[in-house]
Amino acid sequence: MSVAIDVARRDDGAPQTLSFDVVVRDAAGKSRHRVTMSRALAERLGGGVSSAEQCLIAAFRFLLDREPKEQILAQFDVSVISLYFPEFERELPKYLG
């Protein structure tokens, strides 16, 4: 089943925190998420090569391999993913490639 992940950056005016609206679509419908990520975490996860948006798409692909879109929190910061899935940062490069 094909999944589309659409990411739109929001301008919330917080200089050190990036904010996004994410929509995940599949054959069963769609889910909406409001996600934040610090600029520092985006830089670390992307290794200076991938954009924050690419990191977020990879993070959602990682999550979707572990749970259905309906179970992904509606609002969260990317840093909490590691609390639920300790392997997140180690595994993320596989999803960026």
Task: Give a structural overview.
The protein is built from four helices and four strands; from the N terminus they run βββααβαα. With 97 residues, it is an alpha+beta fold. It has one domain (4-96). Strands 1-2-3-4 form a four-stranded mixed beta sheet. A hairpin with a 2-residue loop joins strand 2 (17-26) and strand 3 (29-38). Helix 2 (52-64) crosses helix 4. The chain starts with a strand and ends with a helix.
Task: Kindly report the spatial arrangement of strands forming the biggest sheet.
Answer: 1-2-3-4
Q: Sheet with the most strands?
A: 4 strands, mixed
Radius of gyration: 13 Å
Query: What distance separates the N and C termini?
Result: 20 Å
Along the chain, the helix and strand elements come as: EEEHHEHH
The portion of residues forming beta strands comes to 25-35%
Number of helices: 4
Instruction: Write down the domain tally.
Output: 1
Shape: globular
> Roughly what is the average pLDDT, rounded to an integer?
93
Keywords:
4 strands, 4-stranded mixed beta sheet, 35% helix, alpha+beta, 97 residues
Describe the secondary-structure layout.
Layout: E1 4-10, E2 17-26, E3 29-38, H1 39-46, H2 52-64, E4 75-77, H3 81-84, H4 88-96
Parallel strand pairs: 3-4
Antiparallel strand pairs: 1-2, 2-3
Write a compact overview of the structure shown.
With 97 residues, the chain is an alpha+beta fold. The protein is 35% helix and 31% strand. The chain has a 4-stranded mixed beta sheet.
